[in-house]
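note to self — DONT lose this again. spent like an hour looking for the file last time. sequence + predicted structure for the chain T wanted, 395 res
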Amino acid sequence: MDDLGPRRVAAGARPQGQRDHNERLILSTLQRAGGLPASELARVSGLSAQAVSVILRRLGSEGLVRRGAPQRGRVGKPRVPVAIDPDGALSLGLKIGRRSADLCLVDFGGRVRRQIQATYRWPTPGPVLALLRDGLRLLRAEAGGTWARVAGVGVAKPFEIWDWHEALGAPRGALDAWREVDLAAEVADLSGLPVFVDNDATAACRAELVHGRGRDFRDFAYFFVGSFVGGGVVLNHSVFEGPFGNAGAFGSLPARDAEGRERQLIDVASLFLLEEALAAAGAGPGRLWERPDDWEDLGAPLRAWEAATGAAVARAAVAACAVIDFEAVLIDGAFPAPVRARVVAAARGALAGLDRRGLAPIRVEEGRVGANARALGAATVPLVARFLLDTHVTG
């Protein structure tokens, strides 16, 4: 039921228009640029110095921004930088994944303050909602008086999760319960907070935009390689979701496998393929999750997978850039940073051999957020909806 439209918002959510546009502009500028003096904020935002001063006083009284130490060494009065106060707002992110669900508490600066995980053989609503119920009780007790600053709950889940039983290793029909669950309503009932449901790869894209390399580009295509590959689209510094909340579904792009058969990108550039390769080589695929930060001993299966994945994503990047003239293509995933670097290098190498006539040069870069992007991105949605500018926000 949650896949019938873009980002479902449960009762109690505050639409973007209820916070003054100029306040959102100032907070968004600080979020992208870090600490800035009021004079620089006025220049960058286009607002008058007086308007910026009034807004900063108001945001400071709400605990959303804080002033830093004066910057001396210049002629005239010392400049005092202003930055977002990480303690000013909190948010919850719930990621529903292939083998586990994660619930995290994130502050306004993007730091994960607490994260709780539940594992399962395959994702069904029961264990996920149990994690949320127990996790909320724990986090609420730990947060004490700061719980009032929680802006909402963001939920990251695969689009139409019930269609992926075969790739998830689940029996046919095991995931059908998701068809009937109104996830936004269930989470709202348990939390009493505004709830936002996002496609998981879209959520990862949002994390990269707000907390990673996305700050460097106005428009970019984003590929996240997890158990399944997916992605997101950023236009004018905002995630574009599309009318059904599924923009940037790059996993569905046409691709060819090693035998030249017509497939989708999800079939040739996903982590479940590395699991299969490790199993065929006699290595337990569980090592991917048992040692998530160090895969360097996985040897030839890993290297072959990196090369194939990079080449497949390169072809998909050409297709994406033929539709929208992106400044950059960012690649990230649920793997260690050295693996990401090699996948990106493989994509750049493959890109050089592809026919790109009629296209501007395609810039391929590493993402920065990493494996936790989906949970962090989920938690970012309520903060964006309540405090920041988002030209594509829906509610």
